[in-house]
Specification:
By secondary structure, this protein is mostly helical. It contains 10 helices and no strands. Its main location: cytoplasm.
Length: 302
């Protein structure tokens, strides 16, 4: 069924859902959920829009039943972490390619798709300031590099003055190549950390505060210091830099502490963030999130 012109604003989110149908059904589900919610606000009264949105709702119901055992669908907090981590992995891949001066369609699409998935995070509530900045930067970079390559110009790497921030609405529709499935430039379950991601930096962002679950610079656009040392060699964490809070090790459940289902879900979330951080050898973020999970499980408080 063709997308009514009144709902043009969600066309790229729906295309992203279609591309991820088999690759990552969770991403496909939330892209469609965002599209449905946004479409309802755009136009839910005209017959063609209503018919399209009803069909989209039916599709969502079917997907929800098929994915009923997937905790990213059954638990919003886990779904939120899944989409955010996915979006920021794509952002970091594209940002690294950009700063290394490697301009190609995969990196443009990664910037662009990351911005769309950060839109999708709105289904879980308001975006954080960091994600608003990531979205703005990724969308601008995708358009800027796309237009440079189209005009035969060499783009400038990294954050530069964001002139001409108007988003090219036709980006992604030109030439057709952007709508085709492409090799994902981020780790899949069959790949080890860093495989298929170009030259993923291990230490470029160590000097910047990274929010839990995020593996991209918190204040992009910003000039980042060059990585020190050989990024291919494992860097040992300084002794004493990260110590486990002794109170957590000695914590005993005084009284009758009852953990709720939400407490267990939050603990799972922190463990997921820690696992994701370890993929990028980010020891600090991993320890921080494991400590949060441990504190929650031993005290019932965050």
């Amino acid at each position: 069924m063709a997308l009514p012109p009144q709902l043009k604003a969600i066309q790229h989110h729906l295309r992203t859902a279609q591309e991820h149908e088999k690759r990552d059904p969770v991403v496909a589900y939330y892209c469609r959920l965002y599209s449905m919610q946004t479409g309802m606000k755009l136009d839910s009264k005209t017959p063609e829009c209503r018919k399209f949105l009803v069909k989209l709702m039916d599709q969502l119901e079917t997907m929800k039943k098929e994915l009923t055992d997937n905790e990213s669908i059954s638990q919003e907090i886990v779904g939120n972490a899944h989409i955010e981590n996915y979006a920021l992995k794509m952002f970091l891949y594209a940002d690294n390619e950009d700063r290394s001066g490697r301009f190609h369609k995969n990196m443009i699409k990664s910037f662009y798709t990351a911005s769309l998935l950060l839109d999708v995070l709105c289904v879980f509530g308001e975006l954080s300031e960091e994600n608003i900045q990531h979205r703005k930067y990724a969308r601008w970079k995708a358009t800027y590099i796309h237009n440079c390559l189209k005009n035969g110009e060499t783009p400038q790497s990294g954050p530069i003055g964001m002139e001409g921030e108007a988003y090219d609405d036709e980006f992604g529709a030109e030439g057709g190549s952007y709508s085709l499935p492409y090799q994902p430039p981020y780790p899949t379950q069959s790949q080890g950390p860093g495989e298929g991601m170009g030259t993923m930096p291990h230490s470029n962002f160590n000097n910047i505060q990274i929010p839990p679950g995020a593996h991209a610079p918190a204040n992009t656009p910003a000039e980042l210091p060059p990585p020190t040392g050989d990024p291919t060699k494992p860097v040992a964490a300084p002794r004493g830099a990260h110590t486990v809070d002794p109170s957590l090790l000695n914590a005993s459940q005084e009284g009758d502490i009852r953990l709720t289902a939400e407490d267990f879900t939050r603990a799972q979330k922190y463990c997921k963030y820690a696992g994701s951080a370890l993929q990028y050898e980010d020891v600090g973020t991993a320890i921080q999130n494991l400590q949060k999970a441990l504190k929650l499980l031993t005290t019932g408080k965050e």
